[in-house]
UniProtKB/TrEMBL annotation:
Protein name (record): WDR64 protein
Species of provenance: Catharus fuscescens
UniProt keyword list: Repeat
Alphabetized InterPro entries for the sequence: WD-EF-hand_domain (IPR051242), WD40/YVTN_repeat-like_dom_sf (IPR015943), WD40_repeat_dom_sf (IPR036322)
Amino acid sequence: ALELIDFKNALEQFQNLVEKMIIQKTKESSGSYTTDDDEIDFEKFHTTVQTLFGPAVKDKNVQAFFRKVMNNPDEKPEWPEIFGCFTGESHGMSSLSKENMVLLVSEKQQITHSVVKRKDVIKGLVKVPLLNFTVTASQKGVLTVFSKKIKSFFSYSFYFHQDPTWVNGCDFLPNLKYIVAVTESTVILWDYKSKERQSNGFVIKPMKNCLLCVSTVTVADSLAKDTILMGDDRGYVYLLTITSDDFIMKQSKAKKESQFKVLDAESFDIPKRKLHDDWVGKIRYFPALKCFGSCSTDSINSFILDDIKRLEDHLPVKEFSVPKGVNAFTYCGKAKVIVTGG
C-alpha cells in the first residue's frame, strides 16, 4: 500500500512536470517565453524523471517522451510511454516481480515454428480476427496458418512448388474459407481446412501481367462467393469474383498437376482498369468506406480511393498526386483518417 501511495505521488509530480513543459513550449511558439531558472530542458527533465521513478524508466524512453512533448505539445503522450509500454491484460498476479509492480504488461509469446527456410522471406501477413488466426506467405511459396487455441499456437503449411515464380501477397476468403495468394503469373487458392492440405486447392492461370498484390473485398451479401482485388506491374487493378461452382465447372481438361487443380484464367470474367503508370505496390478494400485503395510510385496517379464499380464502368476515379508516389497506406476508422507513406 505504501508503494502504491508513493507511486501515485510520483505520477502526480510527473504529470505536473509535463504540464509545465507544455506551457513552456506553447509560450516559445508564440514568442512570449522568457528564459528563467524554471526552464525545463532535457537534462532537467531526465534528472527529475529518474528521481521520481528510479531504474523503472530507461533513457531511450525518457528521450522519446521528451521529443514527443516538445514536437507536438497539443497531443501529449500518455504517461505509460515513459516506461516504454502501455497497460494491458494480465494472466495473473502470482508471477509479478518487483520490476513490473508499476505496470501490468500483457505477456507476448514467441512462435518458434520455422515457416521459412534460409534465403526466403515473408511477403504477406494477414490477421483473421473472426477465426482467431494469422496467415503468412513466403516469397518461395510457403503458405502458413497460425491458430491460437488453449493458449498455445499450432500451425500448418504447405510448400507450393509447381510454379517457380515468387509469391507476392496473400489474403483470406471469408465466404469460401480459402487462402488466396498471387505469384507473378498465377492466383493460388488453398483449402487449408482439408484433411489433405498438401493436395487440395486450385491454381488460376495464366495471368498475362505480373501480379504484385492482392486483397479481399469484404462484403456480406453472399456465402457462396468471394471477390478479390489484384494489382500488377503495369498499373492495372483487377476484379476477380470466385464462386464455389467455379471449382467444379472451370477445371482444366489437362491432368492434375503435382498438387493443385488448374482453373483456366480465360474462363473467368476479370474486369481490369489501368489506374497507375507504374507498379501497383499495395491494394486494399475498406468495408467502412465501401471503397478500395491502391497505390503506386507513380507521381501523378499515386493513390486511388473509390468504389470497386469504377473498375467496370470506367467513370473518373478519385486520385491523389504525391511526389515520387506512395508505397503504403492505411485507414483509421476511429480518427476517420487515411495515412499514406511515400
